[in-house]
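Sample entry as discussed:
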Amino acid sequence: MQRTTIMLPEALKRRANQRAAAQGVSLGKFIRKAIAADLERGPVVSASDPLFSDAEVFAGEAPTDLAANHDHHLYGEQS
C-alpha cells in the first residue's frame, strides 16, 4: 500500500470516523472501501444522461445563440 494524505472538512471527517466506528473498521479502511465501491460502479459517462444519449438532440450544428434564445429554438417562442 501507498500512504496518501488527504484534506477533509472537520464535519466530513467526524462523520466518516463515526461511520467507521459503527462498522468496526479504521478510518483508513472505511475510506478504502468507499473508494473501491465508487470505482466498482464503473466510469462516469455523460451518455448515461438520456439527454446526451439522444442522437436527435445533437444532430448537426447547434445555433450560437442557443443559451440566450433557447425558447425560440426549442418551442418557436421568443424569449
Summary: The radius of gyration is 22 Å. The mean pLDDT is 85. Residues 2 and 55 are 44 Å apart (CA to CA).
